[in-house]
Specification:
Strand content: over 45%
Number of helices: 1
Mean pLDDT: 80
Strand order of the largest sheet: 1-4-5-6-7-8-9
Largest sheet: 7 strands, antiparallel
Length: 196
């Protein structure tokens, strides 16, 4: 008579079974490994853990005073972002960027820098390569301009805080590496001015 297997799922056999114990034990393992390979292949993007990025930016600034808005001044710059994703949906991040802005009021450029601290909400992370996101947080902004009169140079600086919000897309080449593009707006006031 053929021996009877007591429990194939648990990998147990009777002592008089000619079926090797290792065969019954390894069959579930191959099944688990196969499922894991399928799961790994389905993961095209990830938003969890630490992340860091750097890139080029285009910046613009418009000032409002007395109900009127000045023409938008713009320029190019660069930025750095670092953060941590607590799960596939949301993360905490900080950004710092700087740019050289071309002035429309005087001949020359001035420096613009800002720092943001906020939260980012990701959509479709995991099974999709393109992951949209929305973000919002607190922001600080500063400008610095030099005015030359004769042999004298005067520096004007202004600082202020506000709120920032925006959104964008992460296009993943691998689950951990992506090209990111987005647009962010900051609203607030310059509340501290210095002239040196």
């Amino acid at each position: 008579l053929m021996p009877v297997c007591v429990s194939v799922a648990a990998g147990q056999t009777r002592q008089d079974s000619p079926v090797p114990r290792t065969v019954l034990q390894e069959q579930p393992r191959h099944s688990v490994a196969g499922n894991q390979a399928v799961n790994d292949a389905a993961v095209r993007s990830t938003s969890t853990g630490f992340f860091i990025g750097a890139g080029l930016e285009g910046n613009g600034i418009a000032l409002s005073e007395g109900g009127s808005t000045s023409p938008t001044e713009s320029g190019a710059g660069g930025g750095l972002v670092i953060g941590y994703g607590f799960n596939r949906r949301w993360s905490l991040y900080g950004t710092f960027s700087g740019a050289s802005i071309e002035s429309v009021d005087f001949g020359g450029n001035y420096g613009l820098g800002h720092f943001d601290l906020g939260t980012r909400i990701h959509f479709l992370a995991g099974e999709h390569r393109v992951v949209p996101f929305l973000q919002a947080g607190l922001a600080g902004r500063a400008i610095s301009a030099d005015f030359v009169s004769g042999f004298r140079t005067t520096r004007l600086t202004a600082r202020g805080a506000g709120l920032e919000f925006g959104g964008g897309l992460n296009a993943h080449f691998t689950p951990r590496f992506a090209f990111s593009g987005g647009v962010t707006w900051m609203v607030g006031d310059f509340t501290r001015y210095e002239v040196n």
